[in-house]
Amino acid sequence: MKSEDKQISLTDPDARSMATSGKDTGIVGYNVQIAVDTQHHLIVAHEVTNVGTDRHQLGNMARQARDEMAVETLEVVADRGYYDGEEIWACEEADITVTLPKPMTSGAKAAGRFGKQDFVYVAVPPASD
Predict the structure, then answer these.
(1) Of 99, 96, 31, nearest to 69 (Cα)?
(2) Where does the record place the Transposase IS4-like domain (predicted)?
């Protein structure tokens, strides 16, 4: 069956090709989103999507978690795959505080050069007279 995004899956028409961490690799499947209450270690919200990245999932999952937990404000921690300015702003507007690292966007590594993460700051004590 052919879909609007021109992907064909002979066994599961709703599944989509998604990138994996290996170079030039992928898998046909689904992207499962889960929100967990860290105090009680319980899943409070989940969703299965065929969108291959997490980039636009933060606001939706955070709001679902807040609603299910019946709280007015919420603190959310996510990995850099969820980083998207509009999603972070939407959470802020909904009284959801987000903590997540900014993605590494330098092209240095891809170009075969050293990236920022390859350097360590070493403080040098001031020279004495």
Answers:
(1) 96
(2) 20-88
Question: So where are the chain's domains?
Answer: 16-104
The pLDDT tens digits for 21-44 are: 666 677 788 889 999 999 999 999
Contact 29, 15 (CB under 8 A): yes
List C-alpha distances in Å: 124 to 97, 121, 127, 128.
37, 9, 9, 12
Using CA atoms, how far apart are residues 48 and 122, in angstroms rounded to an integer? 45
* Residue keyed to tokens 């961490």: 21
User: Alpha-carbon distance 92 to 6, whole Å?
Assistant: 35
Instruction: Name the residue with tokens 């507007």.
Output: 93
